[in-house]
TrEMBL record:
The lineage of its organism: Bacteria, Bacillati, Actinomycetota, Actinomycetes, Micromonosporales. It comes from Paractinoplanes tereljensis. This is Alcohol dehydrogenase. GO terms for molecular function: oxidoreductase activity; zinc ion binding. Coiled coil: none annotated. Its cofactor is Zn(2+). SUPFAM superfamilies: GroES-like, NAD(P)-binding Rossmann-fold domains. Residues 7-344 form the Enoyl reductase (ER) domain. Belongs to the zinc-containing alcohol dehydrogenase family. Keywords: Metal-binding, Oxidoreductase, Zinc.
Amino acid sequence: MRGLVYGGPGTRSWTEIPDPAIQDPRDVIIQVDAVTICGTDLHILGGDVPEVEPGRVLGHEAVGTVVETGSGVGGLATGDRVLASCISACGICRYCREGAYGQCLGGGGWILGHLVDGVQSEFARIPFADLSTYRLPDRVSNESAVLLADILPTSYEVGVLNGRVRPGDTVVIVGAGPIGLAAVVTARLYSPAHIIVIDKATSRLQAAKMFGADTTVLAGLDEPLETVRSLTGGLGADVVIEAVGTPQTFELCTTLVRPGGRVANVGVHGKPATLHLEDLWIRNVTITTGLVDTYSTPKLLDMLVAGQLDLGHMVTHRFGFEEFMTAYDVFADPTHSGALKVLVHR
């Protein structure tokens, strides 16, 4: 079979690799039917995640069909169509028992495309399958379901819930990539007064408006702080969600939050960012970080089935498996391509 293999910083290839095999009784093998590329994959290619070794198959967001099950798998059968979560959970360790699956001590957490081979391939091994996959109803398309593998639970848990978005809040989202746009969608569930989105790409700001942002700020042209203060009587934002992962965007977030407000960092950082405690210590600001746990995935799936999550415009480009390299090129250059989320499918 073929897979998208990381060859070291800046290097990737769509190449022949061995077929996956059951390594643990709790594994399943899936035929990958639809898979997407995450901003984290770009961070890996940029050298920001040094734990990823050359030769690793990338990817942690997929929908597939079970083709083989380990002897310890009790809830899945060959032929089941499943969502493969970006987080694997042993279900036994202290963190899993607390629902903090991202911090699993039993061999799980974020491992797909990170510490073990991922899902950007024709077939993939899914560890701890009973706890790390979700059977999909027929009426949920592969295209919609794959967005629940990572970006929806990440934006919801690490952004909206960690930021404690409440009715009437002013929410600023820095970064209008897929995570930022998913934060717009999930923040709207809590009826904020304003959702302000900041990005440097006009096409992504247009998408933010389509998903429900009422104000957009073009970075480098508009003045974010002036915009936020004009909408809040000079106070600043109640919640600021960082959805990029650079020192500049994190530091911008801390300037936009009001005294007593919350900064929820979602972005993957590969470089140190300065924490200006000389300014923040007196302002009662709460800063949260986090890796998604995916405890919200069943609820998000229910909301998707009920029509409460409109994800119809999130996927902008679609490719066949033999076009995987092109899919990466398009996703990595959103300013020119207009890409939000790209889908690679059979």
